[in-house]
Amino acid sequence: MVDQNSSPVGVADLRPTEEAIGTARSARRASPDAPLLAAVRGETPSRRPMWMMRQAGRSLPEYREIRKDVGMLDSCFRPDLLAEITLQPVRRHDADAAILFSDIVVPLKAAGVGVDIVAGRGPVLESPVRTADAVEALPVVDPSQLEAVVEGIGGILDELRDDQVLIGFAGAPFTLASYLIEGGPSKNHGVTKAMMYSQPQLWHALMDKLAPTVVRFLQVQIEAGADAVQLFDSWAGFLSLRDYREFVAPYSQKIIEAVRPYDVPVIHFGVNTGELLGEMAAVGPDVIGIDWKTPLDVAAQRVTASLTAAHEAGDLRVSAERRVRAIQGNLDPAILLAGPEVIGEQVRRVCREADRAVAAGDARGHIFNLGHGVLPETDPDAITRAFAEMHGQ
Length: 393
Ligand code: 1CP
Hints:
single chain; alpha/beta; TIM Barrel; two-stranded antiparallel ribbon; 11% strand; binds coproporphyrinogen I; cytoplasm; Uroporphyrinogen_deCOase; Uroporphyrinogen decarboxylase
């Protein structure tokens, strides 16, 4: 097996100081016994923790109301709005975690990159990044450019109960790079993959440039008090295992290593990643997020098998004691459109599959989530019912 530790990523100097680690520790407000944190440690939580990707946002009328006259990215730099929007679904559904209302392009915008979020479409770049000059010109975000996020997090922590955690997040290298290279949302990520294959040096230069921005965005959130972070490589599932391993994994690994000293759980998630789960686990997250296509017990078993094989083959990334992690997932978001009976049955099925994974020793705990984000047309009451159903078991 290739030694994955010799990658060229220069984020090592971004490892936090003792002072920064101390700042983060005293900023966190959640109790260590909060269900999500207990589940990650493999203890029995007071209830099974649950949150939903994209729980903040489009499905809620109170969100549409507050965002009426404010652009998406503008709202991410208004501390009052980002706090309020983050808290709306937590109040409404009694979620065990708040996910920071932000976007994966926020650190790029903060750093001065010309990017906007176009309604109904997603992030759109003023000029795509496709040349060595463009990569060279790409700024790395400075923490001082993210002060609005820090202030917003303060407002969130003031209101969360101590059994509720705040999850910060960042986009991971492939997903972020795809928006930069394509210039906007893409169906097949063709331009991105073509650059990877035909100009690998340029690809690696872009990854080297992006990784410190991702690390800093995560660090700012953790030092402001985030209790956990999720690294979203949403579109990594468009890659083959071989390409993921060569072009993406070393960077995700370095990013996770750079935030590891804070000792907050790191969740790693992508869509269509059935083939990549073992490799995504090998980059070092505490929790692996699973999309809705693979049953949780099957996914967890795959992760164990893959990590065991990697460890036995001498893969230095995988130590013996880091083999078993918590799993997060994985109700199909479309189930929330299917009526109360189906929601109830399917919530119970996902829990049974997670319990099988834990019983088999393939996971220490389970965080209930969707297999990707809430669909915008979802009835908020169906979401509340799913939370109540899950918590009521
Ligand atoms: O006007 C609006 O309401 C815009 C819709 C919207 C929202 C609510 C966008 C545009 N981003 C967000 C917030 C957001 N984005 C959050 C916080 C809210 C929450 O999760 O509850 C998070 C975690 C993200 C992260 C994000 N943005 C990802 C990774 C997660 C995922 O869903 O896979 C990705 C890929 C993006 C890009 C993006 N931003 C917005 C859209 C519509 C998209 C996807 C576009 C595409 O299909 O490529």
